[in-house]
Amino acid sequence: MDSNKVKVGIAPIGWTNDDLPDLGSENTFEQCVSEMALAGFTGTEVGNKYPRDTDALKKALNLRGIEICNAWFSACFTTKSEEEVLEEFKAHRDFLYEMGAKVIGAAEVGNSIQGLSDPIFEAKPVYTEEQWEKVVKGYNKMADLAEEKGMKLTCHHHMGTGVQTMEEIDRFMSSVQDNVYLLYDSGHIYYSEGTYESCLELLKKYVKRVGHVHLKDIRPEVVAKVRAEKMSFLDGVRAGTFTVPGDGAIDFGPIFKILEDNGYEGWMVVEAEQDPAKANPLEYALKARKYIKEKSGL
């Protein structure tokens, strides 16, 4: 892959988990970004320990040669007024714009169960026609607002939401405007559909509309346990559902080839939430970086 077109980053969720604050509570922001740089990454997303003051954040990242490439946005069009969500989005957009990011990753979480104790497979929401209309309309408006700043809006398909399965992603992508892009997440589609083939199928189908990539590997034996024991998403995280590229079931070689053959430009970000007490963040970051270099040349 061409390093002038594709950059490699890592998310802070391997160091400190926003949804499970006890995971990595001992790890500081400074340790996190220092170890990212030490492992050879040049980009990061935004975690709950990152300074919100843009000058302070820029100083800390510039010292380490790291830039912000994206930050999760929680859209709640299914439970809040459109006006309220769009105001929240504009503040989020402006923060990322100030930090130099070109992409905004949004997930519709108004009625998501990802943070609840409900079983992840049995209790996921299924949108009504009215909810679909709200989500599609809202994403179209967010995309237009992102374009005002020269940025791309991406939809993060995610376990426990109404845009999780292949069928739901298809419906979403066929309903929204062309300026709404997909945040392709290898781990979430494997988790949802249960096969490696689904990772390739989704990417091939939408590669021309992929605006951001999450490199997330998965442990199928843990997914099987989650399904059999009707575990929640967060209980699955604690049990080790996810891991870094090169440590799970996904062969990223074909994924990198599809991206390269179709001229993908942007970031590929390792995003693998684990318990830092079980999976040392620096050790796993180094493992991921080595694997990505071997498989992609980057």
UniProtKB/TrEMBL annotation:
Pathway: Polyol metabolism; myo-inositol degradation into acetyl-CoA; acetyl-CoA from myo-inositol: step 2/7
GO biological processes: inositol catabolic process
One family name in Pfam for this protein: AP_endonuc_2
Keyword Lyase among UniProt keywords: yes
Signal sequence, renumbered to the chain: none
UniProt keyword list: Cobalt, Lyase, Manganese
Molecular function, one GO term: myo-inosose-2 dehydratase activity
Required cofactor names: Co(2+); Mn(2+); glutathione
InterPro entries assigned: IolE, IolE/MocC, IolE/XylAMocC-like, Xyl_isomerase-like_sf, Xyl_isomerase-like_TIM-brl
Reactions mediated catalytically: scyllo-inosose = 3D-3,5/4-trihydroxycyclohexane-1,2-dione + H2O
EC number in record: 4.2.1.44
Coiled-coil segments: none
Domain of life: Bacteria
Entry similarity comment: Belongs to the IolE/MocC family.
HAMAP family cross-referenced by the UniProt entry: IolE
Protein name: Inosose dehydratase
Provenance organism: Sinanaerobacter chloroacetimidivorans
